[in-house]
Amino acid sequence: MRKGVVEFLFNEKKYRLEKFLLLLLLYFATLYITTVFQVSLFVLFVLVFMLVLIMSLIKIMWYNKKEKKNTSVIDWIGTLLALIVLAASVFLYLQENKIENAVYEAIEDKVGDEDFTIDYFERIEKNENAYLVHYTIGGENTEYWGWYDWQDGELIHNFTRTIENN
Length: 166
Prior knowledge:
Blueprint: H1 2-10, H2 16-36, H3 41-66, H4 73-111, E1 116-123, E2 130-137, E3 142-151, E4 154-164
Antiparallel strand pairs: 1-2, 2-3, 3-4
Helix pairs in contact: 3-4
Keywords: Membrane, Transmembrane, Transmembrane helix
Transmembrane segments: 20-37, 43-62, 74-94
């Protein structure tokens, strides 16, 4: 059993179709998780590429030596690419987290001590530095839509539209 798992994970000649189908299934599961649970895609990218990097390093450092195989250039390139994508994903996750914290601070400054709920905020497709924030203040039937620009690491308020719900 253990040998079969090791062969499945590290032998690129065996189980090609099964690996492809498993990766396709994991891709759709990742998209489902990010959509349904509203988890950042970058969080999952970081986890997935950490796993890929660890698997690549185990293959290079343990499996190839155990099987007395020379480490191919493709193995090193795969490890390097996983490391680059992991670094980019971490950077994008931290950037997204920084923007999210700035949005919470901006709304908190605007409403003062009142409770508020940010229903969502998203980047406006036409302008990658513009964000739309939808929030409500506790106890009110009013919805607020705020437009913000992200410039030089700072969130700048453009305008807010209010919608009264009766």
